[in-house]
Amino acid sequence: MKTEGYQSGEHYDEMFDSSGQIREHYQEFQQFLNKTSSKKMHQLQFSANKTQKAMGMTFNVYHDNQGLEKILHLDIIPRIIPNSEWRKLEAGLKQRVHALNLFLQDVYNEQKILKDGVVPSDLILGSKDYLKPCIGLTPPKGIWCHITGTDLVKDKDGEYCILEDNLRCPSGVSYMLESREIIKRAYPQLFNDEGVMPVSNYPTKLLRMLQFLSDKPKPVVGVLTPGIYNSAYFEHSYLALQMGVELVNGVDLLVKDKKVYMQTTKGLQQIDVIYRRIDDSFMDPLTFNPESMLGIPGIFEAYKAGNIAMANAPGTGVADDKAVYAYVPRIIKYYLDEEPILNNVPTYLCREEKDRKYVLENIESLVVKETNAAGGYGMLIGPKATKEEHEKFRELIRNNPKHYIAQPTLSLSTVPCLTEEGIEGRHVDLRPYILYGEEIEVIPGALTRVALKKGSLVVNSSQGGGSKDTWVLYK
C-alpha cells in the first residue's frame, strides 16, 4: 500500500520528516506497506474490528442517545517510537511522578511548599479535591500515586510536552494491552523483526506493586469497581482477571473492627489491598459524600488505622488539578532541585490578572480548559469555536477566573492512519502508564489516542477519538 500522497502538513509528522523522507524507525514498516495491498490492509482492519467486539473492548458513553456501549476504534497502523526517544520520556516521567508524590505528602502534612509561597495556599487548601480528612496522613510505604497515566503531546519541533497528569483513577491501560494482542496477530513477523518491547507483563507488575503496599506475606488484593455501568468497567474486570484477584463493588465489602472484609460463599475474608476505581467522594459515605451508594461505610477509618492499603491513595486529585499543573515545574525544582526533563505546555492561569487579561484578549487563538473537567468537556478550542462561544467563555472566565486555564493551540504531531481514502495523517497524544511500588517504573508502551476526524485535535474516546498500538523499539 503506497504512501506517496501522504500529506504531513505544517505540524510534526512522526513517519515523514519535513522533506518527505521516511524517518529511520518507520523504514521497516514502510517496506511492509510497499509489499501489502490496500485490500489486505483493509481486511486486517476489518479483522481487528471484529476481534475488538468479540473481546468486549467497549466503553460507555453516558450522553450518547444511540446506545450505552461503543467500541474504541483501533487503527491497524501502529505508532512507532525509537528507544532513544523513549529513554528521555521515561526519565522525565519518573522525575515528575517522584516530585508529585513528595508534593502530596507535603500538602497533607507540613505544607512547606505553601508556607514558602512556591504554590499559592488558596489554590490547594480551597480546592474541592483537597481532602481535609487526609490531613496528617501518610499512606502505606509513603506512596500516594501508585498508578499514573500522564498525557503528552509532541510540539511542532517533535519535542514531547506534558499535557496533563492523571493521578486519580487513570484509565485506558486495558486497551493498550488488548490492542497489542490484536496488532501482534495482524503483523506477527514484522512485530518480531522490529524488536518491540513487551507490555503483556503489566498485570504482573501491577499485582506486585499492589502486594508491596501490604506487610503481609500473601496479601489479599481486590479491584473495586463502581459496577457494570461505569465507562471503564471492561478495564476493571479485565485487570482483575489478568491479575487473578477478586473484582468487587461496594456491596461485596464491609468494615468490622476497622478491618475490611469480602463477603464470599465461604463467609467473610479479610482484604488487605484495594485497587480503587471509584472516585474519592464516593469511597466512604461516613467520611465523604453521605449519599454515595457505591462506597463502603467505615473504609476510611480502616485505611487510617493501617488495616487496608488503597491505590491510588485518597486525596491524590489535588495534584491532578489543571491549575496545579502549571506549577509542576516549580514543584520539581522545589523538591528535587532539578530542572524538568519534560516541559509543560505553556499555560495561562486565569486566576492571575496579567494572564487573565491576555486570555480574554486572545481567546480566539487559545484552548481554554475548566480546571476540574475531564474527558474533553468544559473546554473551548478557540480557532474552531464561534464568536458566541468565545463570548460565553469570556463571561465564564470573568465570573470564575480560578476555575480556568488557557494554553496555545497545539498542532499535535500526526501519525499514519488507515482511512477509506488511503493512509493519512491524524493527530495523536500519548498516555504512558507509570507504576510506583518498590521503584518507579514506566511501562514501555502506551495508549496512543488518535483524533479520527481529519484535522481534529480532540482525541478523547468520549468525544469520538480512537486508539493505536504503541511500539517502543529495543533499538
Strand order of the largest sheet: 3-24-23-20-19
Strand fraction band?
15-25%
Helix content: 25-40%
Q: What's the overall geometry?
A: globular
Distance linking N and C termini? 26 Å
**CATH architecture designation of one domain:** 3-Layer(aba) Sandwich
Radius of gyration: 23 Å
- Helix-strand category: alpha+beta
Number of strands: 24
CATH class of one domain: Alpha Beta
Largest sheet: 5 strands, mixed
Query: Averaging pLDDT over every residue, what do you get?
Result: 93
CATH topology of one domain: Rossmann fold
Count, helices = 14
Residue ranges: pLDDT <50 for 5 or more in a row?
none
Could you please describe the fold and organization of this structure?
The chain is an alpha+beta fold. Among the domains are: 201-311, Rossmann fold; 346-408, Dna Ligase, domain 1. It is built from 14 helices and 24 strands. It has helices at 27-35, 38-55, 83-107, 112-115, 121-125, 173-186, 188-194, 202-212, 233-243, 299-304, 322-325, 328-336, 353-361, 387-399; strands at residues 58-60, 69-71, 74-81, 147-149, 151-154, 160-164, 221-224, 246-248, 253-256, 259-264, 267-270, 273-276, 309-311, 343-344, 348-349, 366-370, 379-381, 404-408, 414-419, 422-431, 433-436, 440-442, 447-450, 466-472. The strands form seven sheets. A five-stranded mixed sheet has the order 3-24-23-20-19. The protein has a four-stranded parallel sheet with strand order 8-7-12-13. The protein has a four-stranded antiparallel sheet with strand order 15-18-16-17, with helices on one face. Strand 21 and strand 22 form a beta hairpin. Helix 2 crosses helix 6 and helix 3 crosses helix 12. The mean pLDDT is 93. InterPro entries: ATP-dep_Glu-Cys_Ligase-2, CP_ATPgrasp_2, UCP005522. Residues 78-451 form the Circularly permuted ATP-grasp type domain.
